[in-house]
Fold these 4 entries.
Entry 1:
Amino acid sequence: MSVLDLLYYPDERLHQKSSPVTEFNEELNNLVENMFETMYMEEGIGLAAPQVNIFKRIIVIDVENEKKPENQLVLINPEIIAKEGEAGIDEGCLSVPGLRSHIDRAEKVTVKAQNLKGETFEVKADGLLAICLQHEIDHLNGVLFIDYLSPMKRNLYRTKAAKLTKARKKQAQEAR
Ligand code: NI
């Protein structure tokens, strides 16, 4: 298993739309394992493939963040087929470090997806899982939670993001 490199806002690649997965093979299994590894390393509760520079419709979720296999959700080619109610929490994103903001979402969602074997299943979710599913599926369509904020808030964050990028590059150089 290995930890993958994340893309960070304002990297334009994060706004790219991902394509459907058509082959359910060993490579897909390995990618999903590495995505979980990366997500846990970064202390996230969800990760979408485009965040690690892979433009395929794959998401991994573990809202408990306890690394228990029974809580790990893998959704390939996920699609929201029903939405209900209104909810919203302060969201964050591994690709948008240092920012949390309230986003309006549906309270309940039903998502149709495929598992690692290519079998179709449905998840009915509410609470944090419902919000996480909407956030991660947005990533597959090239949408980040920051895109819902006002241009003024986005610009403020861009300044912060530039500083964070600089700090990350410096750290990477020092680690070499
Ligand atoms: Ni995210």
Entry 2:
Amino acid sequence: MSTALQAQTHLHRVELPSKDYKDDTTSFWCAGCGHYGVLTGLLRALSEVGIDPNYLVSISGIGCSGRLPYFVRSYKMHTLHGRAGPVATGVQLARPDLNVVITGGDGDGFSIGGGHMPHLARKNINMTYILMDNHVYGLTKGQCSPTSRKEMKTPTTPYGGVEAPLDPVLYMLTYGATYVAQAFAGNVKLASQLIKDGMEHKGFAFINLLSQCPSFNEMDTAKHFKNATAILDDSHDVSDLDAAMHAVNMARREGREPNGLLYKTERPTLDQNMAELVKNVGGHKDYDLRKIIDLARP
Ligand code: SF4
Ligand code: MG
């Protein structure tokens, strides 16, 4: 492994219980919302990794998911709809020593922000992206989203949909994410484990958390997600991309959702590649975004 890959500069550790990662702001989602499970899983993962809140940046777009950073003790940015990815990219490149976490919904990430998703993955930007996937637009009261089931009736599809849903994990596997996992948000133990591993992964970690919206999605309930769970067993080879895609396709054929770590690999991150560029082209020893900007000036 190269020296660049070994440099885990993104982890500043402290010892704190998960409750100490909770911001004083009271969390406010509807009763029974799956996003509470996402929040609990994230707080536990932060505690288990021991991330220093002073080096944590929590970033979201718009949607019920967009509230999550308010509830986490961290620096936080509630950005424009679909734009958490570009904002987080800027933060990560300017300060590679920070831990950057995006929390966003299915509409925010894959509809309005869909143009950004392949580039976060292919560039292997060192961050953790938690998709809070409830297969519906919750904040705007129940329109169909890119991950809604075709047959779901919503205010925008009163007779059912006419479009096949997008598959976030297959999408991310295809575009080169170096860590791809999925879990039901109600399985907080598994969700927190996958988030923890994703945070410790150097590269773009994508975790799809299936999260029920009891207010606006009557089909994909907590019971449905729980019953559809297909836990990946120990025989699954997480280093095999074909095996990951096969596992998703096989589960889908049975109407189930694969839960667990699907795929993990290592390759240099964008900030590492830029550091190499600065060293080789500019003769600078250390990565510094300002030096790169200076180099680019005519
Ligand atoms: Fe959760 Fe749905 Fe309520 Fe939004 S509308 S807070 S996603 S239950
Ligand atoms: Mg949604």
Entry 3:
Amino acid sequence: MRIFDIIDRKKNGNTLTDEEIRFFVRSVVDGTASNEQIGAMLMAIVLRGMDEWETEVLTMAMAESGDRIDLSSIDGIKVDKHSTGGVGDKTTLILVPLVASLGIPVAKFSGRGLGLTGGTIDKLASIPDMHTNLSEEQFVSQIQRIGCAIATTARNLDPCDKKLYAIRDVTATVDCIPLIASSVMSKKIASGADAVVLDVKCGHGAFMKDVRSARKLAELCVKIGKKAGLRISAVISDMNEPLGNAVGNSLEVQEALDVLNGKGPKDLKRLTICLASHMVILGGKAKDTAEAERLLQRSIDSGRARQKFREMIRAQGGKDITEKPDLLPKSRYRGVVTAEHEGYVSGLDAAYIGHAANVLGAGRLKKEDSIDYSAGVYLYKKAGDYVKKGDELLCLYSRSRDAIMDAESDIRRAYTFSDEKPETGNIILEEKF
Ligand code: URA
């Protein structure tokens, strides 16, 4: 068998065989397929598609391409959550301790950010002294002791996805349903949890721009997950504007803490509770959404969720920012951007804000870039708000004055205005059980 022939068959629109797909995955991992061949194969998949069966085979082959995490020594139904990536998405920081506070073990492997969307690990790493890289033994033992952990792993989890993703990133082949589904689900299967909730983002700031494609992706992932023996459900959520008001690592940790303290922006609270309620149902602690939401709200109101966040930070060596949020990194410079128009904010493009946060130093454009944990954007006005000329729209934070000036120059373009109040408030678009 030759990679050349497999590419050629996909290019001509054929359905690949089980053997061909597995050969491709093996060749990616052992390096016998060149980057040029991998890029060509990915583009052939984007243009010719993959049916459900091929995607399932690709997913399983990718999941088996490296180590698999064994969580069987942890009692109970271990739950996990995955988002397809959004700007200002700090739900993981909130729902991991929140769900764990109800006695459901939450095992969350996360990654660092690349591109427009920040990674949960970078957000966590903004907490002084926090360890984010745990060995499998440390990860498992922490969940046995306190019920949750968020970490990267040194294990060789899904090496095929790592290679494919890096090449997809530079060959315009990320936004393809079979490739996203196999990437997401192979990682989840290899991560060892029993149950998974997917947050499929939809809108300007997401790979899926419309509900139809987001639905297709969500349904495909749920099908693949169920076939692999997972308990799984999915939420399709709006990603036209950033989630919450804070974008940038330490700003987002502060906002996550606000929600655990019973405050915080409405859209963030709503989505977090929705995703968490799916986890509670899959984890077997509630029979329906109403009961799950009641339990979750009680945990926030009583301070148990916040206490669990504190335990997790302490277990991973971090300074107690729940008691002393001032310990979070603060930026040296800030720049307030004001409105030049009067009217309702009709839209706020998440992709622009994500890009500005990166310019300010909050993210990486290349893997080796370093991060300014204090950098980011804080939004005062979002879609549906009325603004007068001169009102403050947002604030930029950075340790570099030049970066603030660079970001300022075109950030106003993120906003659109109208005379009529737009319809807003629908953060949850669909749920798939
Ligand atoms: N998230 C993933 O893990 N993989 C993708 O391909 C896209 C989003």
Entry 4:
Amino acid sequence: MRLLLVEDDLSLVNSLKPALKKAGYAIEHADNGIDAEFLGREEVFDAVILDLGLPGLPGLEVLKRWREQSVNMPVLILTARDAWHEKVDGLKAGADDYLSKPFHTEELLARLEALVRRKFGRADNHLSHAGVTLDVHKQAVTNALGKVIELTGIEYRILYYLMMNPDKVISKTELSEHVYEEEQLKDSNVIEVYINRLRQRLGKEFIETRRGQGYCLGEA
Ligand code: CA
């Protein structure tokens, strides 16, 4: 899942990034409202964390502009402590959830998980297909024999995305839009390499290739 983190407090950004990465997010960071508005409009994200107090353009304005342009990804706003009106204004402007600063990272992760789940129409955090299970909360993958499978960041994100979309054929482009981070070369051809590595670990039939269309989970 690809996440846009909009926050100008760099110490907060640096403290959040490792936890978010560990939770399986590919992170793009913007430290001002103008870059944030542009990125959210031009690129694909599965969720956004949006601080409201931003240089350049206030977070509330960023959110309003996105929604006016039908940019629909789930947005969690970060508000100042006790500023109840910010929460109301944010929700009215199209935010899906909010957290007041200061917050516990664990609560942020739980709320994000819920937003992503809702986006993909999933009811719980335990994904399973053909004996393979993926626990979103623990970021743990086990194979049909119950053995824990170690995956790299991108491998995990690809598997997570495929398992969140069990009935869909996903193109290489779509996959690459949801798994790469800012510093990574967004090359959709490399996706094939990762898919083959996943097949080596989970079984050849676990992921099917649909010629000219992309990938989907194999028959269960
Ligand atoms: Ca701020």
